[in-house]
Amino acid sequence: MKLVTKIWIYLFLLISTIVFGQTPGFNYQALILNNVEIQIPGTNVKENKVPLASEDITIRFTITNEQGIEYVEEHDVTTDENGMISLIVGEGTPISFTFENINWDGELKYLNVELDILSNNEGFVFLDTQKILYIPHPTNGNGTIKIVNALNELTPPYKLGELIWITNYGPNKNPSLMIWNGYNWLPVNDDFDPTNELGLVVVENDAARAARFVNPENGDQVWNKTCKCIQVFDAPNWVSISGNVTNVLNGLTNESNTIKLGGNLTEATQLVTNAANTLAIKGLQESTNQEDVIIAADKDTGVLKTKKLNDFLQKKQIVIIATEGQLEFKTPLNITNSDKLDVYRNGVRIDFTILNSTTIKLEPEAICYKNDKIRIVQLN
């Protein structure tokens, strides 16, 4: 017979929901097992679970809510010959915060359990998470959960997840913890998670998720209220699941389940800006073609329209009959840019220099003869 040296730890709680009164702590019992592979000639028996007997261990309890950690404590204990441990949560060595300061407000809390087998020198291993439900002691009128004898004693409105303790419920008139699921009062066993009918753990943000799952395992899932998405742990990262996109409209395109900007508008669309939230497009190329169009906005509706660039350009030209030896000529408009001015002598374009804002001078080689036609074309 050969024992495989790698040990896997299994934890079996003897209680599935922890319910307690206003006491300094609550009982916790567990059976801790080894997973030993036994090899026998001619056969191979796997997963023969045997107790982790007479081992020195450290148990760490972390109590959390949806916002984060409320309390951490540790217990140094030795398992009995049957692998059993029996502890009281609240009587261990505090690591963070104090048990007495936990706010037992009736909202859902979680007990996270970690185990360190001292002989293995492997540190803490995450074992299990249990939901904690708090019931005030019936004799104490200061409990945060209302105690009633019948449901008709209650006065609406009720909050989703609100808990009550009813002293007699059902045909057998048994005391029961009830929860409001948004429509009806139900026994907690019928609606074990008041925040989510699918059983997903709900967290406020990534920090709360990290506190809730100290040592996450592949497949752990949460509903993250910040990203409004389901997140699944796929080591070493939490992966957000947004679902498959099947249809996009109005200027958007779906490419391999990725939404991209670009596509046909399917309805009249309006973008509203203000002094603080302006609209800008950067990196546009400069137009060098006078046949290009520009975008204009309707003064009443703001609807975008196009208009030819030439429609916005004023062009003016004059024809002057030159005198013998004339070189200087007046332009039809004030000169703002030499690129907006062309000069032709008898239909041939010629060079010139600018003397002032209204006068040009032809190049010396282009000196005019009597009755030469000088045409000056100018854009504003």
Structural topology:
Layout: E1 2-3, E2 8-13, E3 18-20, E4 26-40, E5 43-51, E6 56-64, E7 69-78, E8 84-89, E9 93-96, E10 109-117, E11 125-134, E12 146-148, E13 163-169, E14 174-180, E15 185-187, E16 201-203, H1 206-212, E17 221-224, E18 229-234, E19 237-241, E20 252-255, E21 258-261, E22 293-297, E23 304-308, E24 315-321, E25 328-330, E26 341-345, E27 348-350, E28 352-356, E29 359-362, E30 373-379
Parallel strand pairs: 3-11, 12-13, 16-17
Antiparallel strand pairs: 1-4, 2-4, 4-5, 4-8, 6-7, 6-10, 7-9, 10-11, 13-14, 14-15, 17-18, 18-19, 20-21, 22-23, 24-30, 25-29, 26-27, 26-30, 28-29
Task: Write a compact overview of the structure shown.
The protein starts with a strand and ends with a strand. The longest helix is centred in the middle third of the chain and has 7 residues, at 206-212.
Structure description:
The protein has 1 helix and 30 strands. It is mostly beta strands. It has a 6-stranded mixed β-sheet. The radius of gyration is 41 Å and the shape is elongated.
What portion of residues is helical?
A: under 10%
Q: Number of helical runs?
A: 1
Structural class: mainly beta
Strand content: over 45%
Features:
6-stranded mixed beta sheet
